[in-house]
Design a protein that fits this description.
The protein contains one helix and 14 strands. The chain is mostly beta strands. It is elongated.
Length: about 210
C-alpha cells in the first residue's frame, strides 16, 4: 500500500515538474502582450532644411522616452508575429541652434520574430525580429510646418526572463529606418532623418 502511495506521489510530482517546465517554453498557438518604458535616441544629425529667407540650417531632434506596447502570436514554437509601438511622444525641434517648437511621433511596427529556444524549457527566451515601421508625425508647433509620415524597415533584439507562470521580464533594443519629408507652407524644404534606436524594459504576459 505504501509503495502504491509512493509511486502515485512520485508520478504526481513528476507531472507537476513537467507542467511547470513546459510553461517556460514558447509554444505554437500562444498569445502574448507586453508593455513598459522605452528610451528613444535619434541619430545625432537629423538633416538640413532650406528655409526661405533663412537658408540652409541643421535640424536637431531631441531624444525622448515613453510607454511601449506589444501584442504577438506564435505560429510555431520558434516563429511568430508581433504588432508593437509606442505612445505618442513629443520631440523638441531645433533649427540652426534655435528652438522651433516640437512635433509628436507615434511609431507602429509589424515584425516577424524568431525564438531560437522556442519549445525548450528555458527561463531565458531570446528573440530577434525584423519587419516594417510606420511612423506618424503630428502636432507641429511651428505654423505652416508639416512633417510627413514615414515608412521603413525595423529590426529588434530582445529577451524574456520567466519569473512566474506566464509572466516574464522583457528587454529589447530596436533600430528603425525613419526619414520624413518636411514641408513649410506646402513646399518641401528638406528631409528629417530620425533613424531611432529604442531601448525598452517591461513585462511580457503569455497565455
Amino acid at each position: 500500500m505504501n509503495q502504491h502511495r509512493f509511486l502515485t506521489a512520485a508520478l504526481l510530482s513528476a507531472g507537476a515538474l513537467i507542467a511547470s517546465q513546459a510553461a517556460l517554453a514558447y509554444q505554437a498557438g500562444e498569445v502574448f502582450v507586453r508593455g513598459g518604458i522605452a528610451q528613444t535616441d535619434v541619430k545625432s544629425n537629423n538633416g538640413d532644411l532650406d528655409v526661405p529667407g533663412v537658408g540652409v540650417a541643421r535640424l536637431d531632434v531631441s531624444d525622448e522616452r515613453g510607454l511601449y506596447y506589444g501584442l504577438g502570436y506564435l505560429f510555431t514554437d520558434q516563429f511568430g508575429i508581433e504588432l508593437s509601438g509606442q505612445e505618442k511622444v513629443e520631440h523638441d525641434l531645433t533649427l540652426g541652434g534655435g528652438p522651433i517648437g516640437s512635433v509628436d511621433r507615434m511609431p507602429v511596427n509589424l515584425l516577424v520574430n524568431y525564438y531560437p529556444l522556442g519549445g525548450m524549457d528555458s527561463r531565458v527566451q531570446p528573440y530577434v525580429g525584423a519587419g516594417l515601421n510606420y511612423t506618424r508625425f503630428s502636432g507641429e508647433e511651428l505654423p505652416g510646418l508639416d512633417v510627413r509620415r514615414s515608412y521603413g524597415v525595423i529590426g529588434q533584439v530582445g529577451v524574456d526572463l520567466a519569473v512566474a507562470q506566464g509572466v516574464m521580464l522583457n528587454g529589447f533594443v530596436s533600430y528603425a529606418d525613419v526619414s520624413a519629408d518636411v514641408r513649410l507652407g506646402g513646399d518641401k524644404i528638406g528631409e528629417a532623418k530620425i533613424d531611432p534606436m529604442t531601448i525598452g524594459g517591461g513585462i511580457t504576459y503569455r497565455f
